[in-house]
From TrEMBL:
Pfam families: CFAP54_N. This is Cilia and flagella associated protein 54. It comes from Mustela putorius furo (European domestic ferret). Residues 22-31 have a biased composition (Pro residues). Residues 1-52 are annotated as: Disordered.
Length: 791
């Protein structure tokens, strides 16, 4: 990232002086007044260290001298005309600049002309008009993809009015507010400042993306120079770092080209072909293969892995001729690289070897997998292939994990593999059988329970150990959950939770919470109580199921004892609340699991909240109803989890809807003097299942009911304020230059006689805008009620 940062930030630090011409500019088109200056005028208007007050323009009359500041003001009209002509010239001439020299001359001329316009008019224009014009011109330049010019001559100029004496990358929120918003957010210029700051970052991002080509160009030029091999090596690190982030967010298709380039650079640099850099080469090879698999191009992933394996073997042959390094160190490097490539080959080969051949009509005899589980290892074709390709338990288990993993699938997206081929489904079942057997053979202790070392699976693989790490076992049990191998999941999760409870490190605590959450939601997903094909762990003793472990852990929490109900949906909410809200930040459960569970709970809670009758003739009865309703308790828990977790990671629509429903209840509770209207709705009868069922001896109540009315109104106001800030941030991140959103559109069907029904977007930003307005209206209403209470 350092190389990219340096190449991208260098244009930002350029002064306008660097953009001024060194000699007389070429003859411009006659239509542009801004471009028709003489060499003398160009020289006089070029940037110099003279202060703005000392410029000649200061002696000229200001805009107010010519009358009202409107479109008829001659100075404003002249400024508008020159800017309009310059932008028109840029739109017409940009496409004609083809060669590098033409592009350079075009950008030089445009930068000089725009600089001259600002220098000419800035001292004479009102500050508000000048700043607004800077932003509008910058937006127009961004639409033409002239990000460097927009950054330097528009947004950069606007932000020069602020005295910034701190590092933006290290500054906290208070320092940032003090620097850019000294008059507070209520000032009318605050919106313009936000505009300039966000646009500045967008321009910097685009410049970083453009500089990637320059990075590859630098690497290509340095490639033949052996003494510059460090540039190649560092360049591959920068590329890999960025591509890994792209792969994590599901953009492997965009990362593939750059990872291929980095791999080829490592192969073409002679100094980097040594054994010392073999581990890094193997990492790049593995990333390329993973990108191919993520893009559903497994055949290319396997082919690239075989090619990489051949390259590694070539290096091994050369190494045998000259034993420059210690044999032990070389053996370790070769082993790691070979195992990584073998796993990538196995990932596709295990399926392809079982697919039906179209030229053979005789059906293959299928093995009864239930009977095979009682036989000794190796029992299936998959297990025999693992024995042939890999030589240790750790490496075989790594191959099982990589083959079952799918980066395009989330943990809670459960179900068997989507295919019509029975053989492929059999391979998946055989992989789970093999993983379970490897765990039993390698990690079963003397007491019959599983035990794990504190070493990563890759380190164990390189050392050739016949043991499996705890992080690999946790990943395996998550895969069993995803593929709905429920018997294996329940039996193995119970033992893993028991082991993780005895560990003290943060990673173990996070893994424990992940498994607890999965166990809690399992009854809600596995409604039919299926078992799955793979048998449970043989060493799982009676009473050691995962459900029993979770109940022992969770029911120590007070929030569950207050509920008193045992339905699975509310037990899941209590479990999620305990794992998120009662845990420190360094042991929070997996973000993906938490977000998906919040979405799942809200879909259930939304229907239950709609049944509550908000209009009551008596405040006391309404309060009693709210205090004993399980859906309100669930709504409160969802809200607490959202605000204890990172709110920006959760769908802002869900955050807004939860906030609106809870603030509505808080507003009614915080206004005892409100006259409740009588409702014709039939009150909910006892026994409908909407009561918490609090025991007589338990005096705990819903936490929001413990607050005073004024405190309840304050809480509602704060929740609405956070939701409004969240929508503001979401709109800023997803807004296009023309003001529309990349994701927020309302679609309606239009009938077509030929093509049938098609969907067309209507009213952009309609839904998000309505939701935003509803939050503002609710906050205003709460504020009015709060003022009445305070008076």
């Amino acid at each position: 990232m350092a190389a990219l940062d340096s190449s991208s930030t260098s244009p930002v630090t350029l002064s306008p002086t660097s953009l001024s011409p060194t000699g007389p500019p070429p003859t411009p088109p006659p239509t542009s007044n801004a471009l028709s200056k003489s060499p003398l005028e160009s020289k006089d208007s070029s940037p110099s260290p003279v202060p703005r007050s000392a410029c000649l323009e200061n002696s000229l009359p200001l805009a107010v001298f010519y009358g009202p500041l409107d479109a008829k003001n001659p100075l404003l009209a002249s400024c508008e005309r020159e800017i309009r002509e310059l932008l028109g010239f840029m739109k017409r001439k940009k496409a004609l600049a083809i060669t590098g020299q033409q592009k350079h001359e075009f950008h030089r001329l445009c930068a000089t002309s725009l600089f001259n316009i600002w220098t000419k008019y800035a001292p004479r224009l009102p500050a508000a008009y000048y700043n607004e014009k800077l932003l509008k011109v910058g937006d127009s330049l961004c639409e033409m993809k002239e990000y460097k010019l927009a950054l330097l001559q528009c947004y950069g100029r606007y932000l020069q009015q602020f005295t910034i004496n701190f590092d933006e990358n290290k500054a906290d929120v208070n320092q940032f507010k003090t620097a850019f918003f000294p008059k507070g957010f209520g000032d009318k210029t605050a919106a313009h400042t936000f505009h300039a700051l966000s646009s500045k970052n967008i321009c910097k991002y685009e410049l970083v993306c453009d500089s990637d080509v320059n990075l590859r160009l630098i690497m290509q030029v340095a490639l033949p120079q052996e003494h510059l091999c460090w540039i190649i090596f560092n360049g591959t690190i920068y590329i890999y770092t960025i591509c890994r982030k792209l792969m994590i967010i599901g953009q492997s298709s965009k990362a593939l080209e750059y990872l291929l380039w980095a791999s080829m650079c490592m192969e073409c640099s002679v100094p980097l072909l040594s054994v010392r850099y073999l581990t890094w080469r193997a990492t790049l090879y593995t990333a390329v293969c993973q990108c191919y698999y993520d893009c559903q191009a497994g055949i290319h992933g396997e082919a690239f892995a075989r090619r990489a394996l051949a390259k590694i073997d070539e290096l091994r042959q050369l190494e045998l001729m000259s034993s420059s390094q210690s044999q032990e160190e070389s053996r370790r490097h070769y082993r790691e690289a070979t195992i990584k490539m073998a796993v990538m080959i196995f990932k596709r080969g295990v399926f392809e070897s079982r697919r039906k051949s179209k030229s053979v009509f005789r059906p293959k005899i299928r093995v009864n997998l239930r009977e095979a589980q009682t036989l000794p290892w190796p029992r299936t074709v998959t297990e025999r292939l693992l024995d042939e390709m890999l030589d240790s338990t750790a490496s075989r288990f790594l191959a099982v994990l990589e083959t079952l993993s799918d980066s395009n699938r989330r943990t809670l997206q459960t179900g068997s593999i989507v295919t019509d081929e029975v053989e492929v489904r059999d391979v998946v079942s055989e992989l789970f059988m093999a993983g379970k057997e490897l765990l039993i053979m390698s990690n079963t202790g003397a007491d019959g329970m599983l035990d794990f070392p504190q070493t990563s699976l890759l380190q164990l693989t390189v050392k050739g150990k016949n043991v499996i790490s705890i992080d690999a076992a946790v990943k395996f049990v998550k895969l069993a959950f995803t593929y709905e191998e429920w018997s294996l999941f329940d039996s193995l999760a119970g033992q893993l939770i028991d082991f993780l409870q005895r560990q003290d490190d943060p990673e173990s605590k996070k893994a424990e919470k992940d498994l607890i959450l999965l166990v809690a939601i399992e009854p809600l997903i596995n409604i039919k109580r299926n078992k799955g094909l793979v048998f449970p762990m043989e060493n799982c003793k009676e009473g050691q199921s995962a459900q029993i472990y979770v109940k022992k852990i969770i029911f120590h929490d007070s929030c569950v004892k207050t509920s008193g109900y045992s339905e699975d949906i509310f037990h899941l909410a209590a479990t999620l609340y305990s794992c998120v809200c009662d845990s420190p930040q360094n042991v929070q459960p997996d973000k993906e699991i938490v977000v998906d569970m919040i979405m799942f709970l809200w879909q259930k809670c939304k229907l239950g909240i709609q049944k509550i009758n908000m209009a009551r003739s008596d405040y006391a009865k309404f309060t009693q109803k709210i205090s004993s309703n399980k859906w309100v308790y669930l709504l409160w828990q969802i809200n607490e989890v959202i605000h204890c977790y990172k709110m920006e990671d959760i769908d802002i629509v869900v955050v807004a809807e939860v906030t609106l429903r809870l603030s509505e209840i808080l507003e009614l509770l915080g206004n005892p003097r409100r006259k409740f209207k009588k409702s014709l709705e039939i009150p909910l009868r006892k026994g409908t299942g909407d009561s918490l069922g609090i025991s007589r001896g338990n005096t705990e109540i819903l936490p929001i009911l413990k607050k005073k009315p004024v405190e309840q109104l304050f809480l509602a106001y704060e929740l609405l304020d956070k939701a409004i800030d969240g929508i503001n941030l979401n709109c800023m991140l997803t807004a296009l230059p023309n003001g529309s959103s990349v994701i927020d559109h309302c679609y309606a069907k239009y009938a077509q006689d030929i093509d049938g029904d098609i969907c067309k977007p209507v009213t952009p930003n309609n839904f998000m805008m309505d939701l935003h307005l509803e939050l503002i209206q609710a906050q205003h209403h709460v504020a009015v009620v709060l003022l009445d209470q305070l008076q």
